[in-house]
Every structure is written in structure tokens, then in C-alpha cells.
Amino acid sequence: MQKITLLALLFISSIVNAQLVSSQNYNADHQLLALEIYEKTIAMRTAAGHNQVKVMAHYLADRFRDGGFDESDINLIPFISPNGEEIASLIVRYRGDNSSNRKPILFVAHMDVVDALRKDWVKDPFKLIEEDGYFFGRGTADDKSGTTLLTSAFIRLKEEGFLPNRDLIIAFTGDEETEMLTIEDMVENHRNLIDAEYAINADSGGGRLDTNYKPIAYQLQAAEKTYADFTISITNPGGHSSRPTRVNAIYDLAQALKEIESYEFPIESNDITVEYFKMRAAAEKNELGKAMMDFSINPNDSRAAEIISKDPNQIGIIKTTCVATMLDAGHAENALPQSASANINCRLFPGTTVNEINSRLRQIISNPNIKINVSGTPKSAPASPLKEEVMDALRKAVHAQYPDLPVIPYMTTGATDGRALRAGGIPTYGSIALFSRGEDNFAHGLNERVLVKSFFDALEHWQILIHELSQ
Ligand SMILES: [Zn+2]
Fold first, then answer.
1. Separation of 367 CA from ligand 1 center, angstroms?
2. Integer Cα distance of 436 and 449 in angstroms
3. pLDDT at 21
4. Residue 295 C-alpha to ligand 1 middle, in angstroms?
5. Which domains does the chain carry?
6. What is the mean pLDDT of the segment spanning 63-71?
7. Distance from the CA of 446 to the center of ligand 1, in angstroms?
8. Ligand 1 geometric centre to CA of 78 (Å)
């Protein structure tokens, strides 16, 4: 049993004045343990370059030890980041009785945060502060809520003697916000420790509340588009601008950009986007809602696709998009340009490769003198096919608090650690269990916050979810 000493309780309550949410199912010890972990880890500045990721990994490893986890099931994996900082990952195995004869379930979150400067924040970003019904602090949402909720869930389940029907594994990474190399290190070099049938990523998804805190829907992230930048460029001999020639790098580049602008990428769909539009259609009353419903019935309905494409919030869900984002051309007001280049930012529909888009751009641009180069090494991953048992378990956990709330799978245009897992053959579902209003989303930004009630509700959500998935 994880004992919260009176001293710890006083310590916590003097700093965090949180009202423990009481409900007959809620466990006060569990709430206090979670609060303590939340507070301690938010005080660790785990942004790149501050040497705190390893400290946090050791701290959490100690919590698991105290919680009764066997030393051999706690793996702290050191890693040197490209900037030379010693960081780490933490992998913890909760042994099941194997009665289901199935591979483990992996639970993922990340320990690092985007940096925050004290002078820019209203409150100290590296101190958990509770005010007006919110927890404030860097990482309260992204993603120290994830590491805290999972750690305390595992410790509570262990304490209650819960025996899952298969192994459960926690994997906390150390550089999700920067290089995303610790997740790749796990997938490539420590596969035996994290190998699983599927993963739940406590770093995306979650419930949406309207302005009045009324729940609208719960979202499960099951796919991510691939981010890729391409540089298109052309060079000319140049010359004096008083003697213009027929070749001009700026005009050539402009022509190529117009060709990209007028190109329509093909409409695409998968079971996640179809399900997403089916569920979203109900919430959209106008023409868009009807188009969403029509598209979910027939993804080849070009009229529906055209209406959806007009909405910038939805266009990325039905196709690959490429758009010019930066220009660089010429070197003097009175000289013919010797070079011109532009950045084309593409978001690839899952299943589309970077090479395919490279050749597509080659076809779209009629001028063979225009060069096309991929920037960096973009990584892509397939969508994760929806699993009915995961959807069912998630609905039970969500409906325990909000009966009948729609649970909607969706695809994001940004990337998380889920990408490397999906690329490594482990289907991954993003679901953090927190509920928030759109206007309270300050992840990566200033004055990041999480609703106190939502945090405590999420503790219960994870208990239900893990029980449902593994008993
Ligand atoms: Zn995150």
C-alpha cells in the first residue's frame, strides 16, 4: 500500500490547495499520490538542455519501486541526445497472469516539455499552482498529466492487487518535443521491452468541452499525417537589370508555384476519417454536415468532398495538402536574380510516401530546370485500424462520467511518439482522458493549464480503461 504520510499531505496541501473531488468511487489516497507526482515532476524543468529528464526518470522509477514493482521490471534506459545532454526513457512492466494469451498493451507518455520562461508567464511555469479551478504549470497538460496519470494508475492497480490477463507496459520517452529519438531507440533497440499488440498514447486525444464546460465529444487519435518540407529552386546566370533577358529565376519559380497552387491532390479516406465524418456530421447542421454524412456513406462522392475541401479545418482530413510557405529570391534591386527558391510544406495522407509526393511535384512542375529537394528526413506512418475492443473500453471509461457522449476517432496533422510506434508495427491510439475547452488549450504556449476536476476525473478514467482492456 502506498502510504501518504501526514507530512506529505501537509506538504501537498500547503502548495496545492486543490479540493479533492469526492465521489463514492474516488480514492483519496490515489488522488494525493497523483497530486504529489504531478507537483514534483512539474517542478523539474525537463525542457531540452536542462538535464532534468534523467532526474525525472529516476524519480518515477523510485515511485514504481515504492509501489511494489520488481526491480527487474523497471528499466531506465540512458540516451545521449544530439546536443550531448544525457536524457533517458523509462519502461515499466506490470506482470499479468497471461490468461488471455495475448501480447501486452503499451501505455505511452513523454517526460520532456517545451521550455517556458518565467518572465513570460503570469505564474512560475515550473511550480504546480492551483487557482480558479485550474492547475497551472508547464506540462500540466503536455505531458506531465500523462506521466502522472499512468504512474499513479499502475501504482494503485498494484496496490489493489489487480492481476491483468496480459502484461501491461509503461513507456515514458525523454525527447518527444524535440528529436523524438528515444521512442525510436525503444522501437529499434529495446523492442523486447515494449513489444505490444497495440499502444495507448497519453499525449493526444481527449474530451472537448464547450465554452460553458459542457462536454461535446471525446476524441481518439488513430492516425497522424506526415509532415514534409520540399525546397523548389532554380538558378540563372543573372545579369544587369537594365538588360533583362528571357530567363529569369523569379518568373520561372513563380510559374512553378502557380502550377502547384492549381494542382488538386486526389481525395483519400480511411476507416478513421470515415468514422470521424459520420460522427461529426451530427454536430454540423448546415451544408457541411450533410457533405460529411454523404462522404461517410460514400467516400467517392466528389460533390461532398468539394464542400468539405472548402473548410480549412477539414481539407487536411480528406487529402494530402502542399502549400507554399516561404520565398527567397534575388540578391539586389538592380540585378537579375541568380537564384529563387520556395519552401513547400506538405502534409501527407497516411499511406502516402515522401517519395511519391516528390515525384508528384516533379510531374506538376513543367519546367525541368526547377530542382526539388526534400528537407530533412520526414518520417511517415500508417493509420492505426480501429479496434472494437479499444473503442468499447474507451466508451465505458468516458460514459462512466458522461453517459452517451460520442467517442470519435480522428487524424491529426502534427506528430507525436505514436508515429514511430505505428511505423514500427504497433497500432497506437492517442487518448489522454483529460477534458478541456478549446480556449484553454495552452500546450507549448504560455500559462498552460488543466481543469482540476478533469485531472481527478481522468484518474478514474484510467482505472476503468485499464480494467476493461485487461481483465
Ligand atoms: Zn506532448
1. 41
2. 9
3. 53
4. 31
5. 6-204+416-470 (3.40.630.10), 226-375 (3.30.70.360)
6. 98
7. 15
8. 20
